TrEMBL record:
PROSITE patterns: PROKAR_LIPOPROTEIN. Residues 78-309 form the Solute-binding protein family 3/N-terminal domain. It comes from Blastococcus mobilis. Keywords: Signal. This is Amino acid ABC transporter substrate-binding protein, PAAT family. Signal peptide: none annotated. It holds the Pfam family SBP_bac_3. The keyword Iron does not apply.
């Protein structure tokens, strides 16, 4: 079997590192060991769906019309995507394979094209991609103009962010403006940390609060998403901002210690990033394969099986990011 020559891409700077939604660690029960489950809140927003459900994944039939969009050279070798370890419900390892709504969607699209999609779990997928060791990266990446310089995006959802708070939301944080003057934690390398530390960042909470005549959030920087959860649970922060799919897992694994204050769907597209060498053939083919999943309901079925109910789109796009 002929080996596909992977193409190296330019070194990725901090702005590209920020596309990772987490730092490669599953967040398991941040509450104290042996703690009793707090009583339910009457007004609490309770996430639905199981981020670790990994429902049965039916094999998709090859669609002749879609398969005709890719060459034999493309189908002869698998497309290898780097993934960070365990970011449920986006991706996680179960029974020796990658599951989650992103791997499930990618497999389904690939099967309709007759293209094999494989996943390589890496501690630093971005470094491996920059070195040309993988063909792309899966991991709920925000599509931006800067990132389009090193890869092309097949955008399949809109971004959504959640604010995670203490049980029963004692401070009444129900919208972004409620974070003004509050201690807010986010992980290094995430878009959310930029939004609480950089007034010029798209969606900056600093700018929002200044426009409202309020004090900006007080950033509490965390090394990882796990340490951000620990910071919130220990009371060293009033809230944590994180991508909505990851917040689902955080809250459900907290044994009732944490709640979701609010979830906001944003216009920013999120997608899978692939090497630009695929621009001529595989990228537009995947765009059409994803669209077929949207059109027949498979897309919604996969997303909702993992509790992903926000950010759905009717039209799959390529490189839609404008920020």
């Amino acid at each position: 079997m002929r080996t596909r020559l992977l193409t190296a891409v330019p070194a990725l700077g901090l702005a590209v590192v920020g596309v990772l939604t987490g730092c490669g660690a599953r967040v398991d029960n941040p509450g104290a060991a042996g703690a009793t489950t707090p009583p339910a809140c009457q007004t609490e927003e309770v996430p639905e769906g199981d981020p670790l459900a990994a429902p049965p994944l039916p094999t998709q039939e090859v669609d002749p019309a879609l398969a005709g969009l890719v060459s034999e050279e493309t189908t002869a070798q698998p497309v290898v995507l780097g993934v960070a370890p365990d970011l449920p419900p986006v991706n996680f390892e179960k029974d020796g394979e990658q599951r989650g709504f992103e791997p499930d969607l990618l497999r389904a699209a690939g099967e309709r094209l007759g293209v094999t999609i494989e996943f390589q779990m890496l501690q630093n997928p971005l470094a491996a991609y920059s070195a040309g060791q993988v063909d792309g990266i899966a991991g709920f990446f925000n599509d931006t103009k800067e990132r389009q310089e090193v890869g092309s995006f097949v955008d399949y959802v809109n971004a959504s962010v959640s604010t995670v708070v203490a049980h029963c939301n004692p401070l009444g944080i129900v919208e972004a403006a409620d974070l003004c003057g509050r201690k807010v934690t986010a992980a290094v390398g995430t878009v959310q940390l930029l939004q609480i530390t950089d007034a010029a960042a798209p969606g900056s909470l600093i700018a929002l609060c200044e426009e409202a005549g309020e004090e900006p959030p007080v950033p509490v920087q965390a090394d990882t998403s796990v340490s951000a959860v620990q910071t919130l649970s220990a009371g060293r922060a009033d809230a944590m901002v994180i991508d909505a799919p990851i917040a689902l897992n955080v809250v459900q694994q907290s044994a009732g210690a944490l709640s979701i204050g609010y979830t906001e769907t944003l216009p920013n597209p999120v997608g899978v990033m692939l090497n630009k060498k695929f621009d001529a053939e595989l990228i537009p083919a995947l765009e059409q394969a994803y669209q077929s999943l949207v059109d027949d309901g498979t897309y919604t079925e996969i997303l909702e099986a993992y509790g992903m109910v926000t950010g759905h789109v009717d039209e799959i796009t390529v490189n839609r990011g404008e920020a």
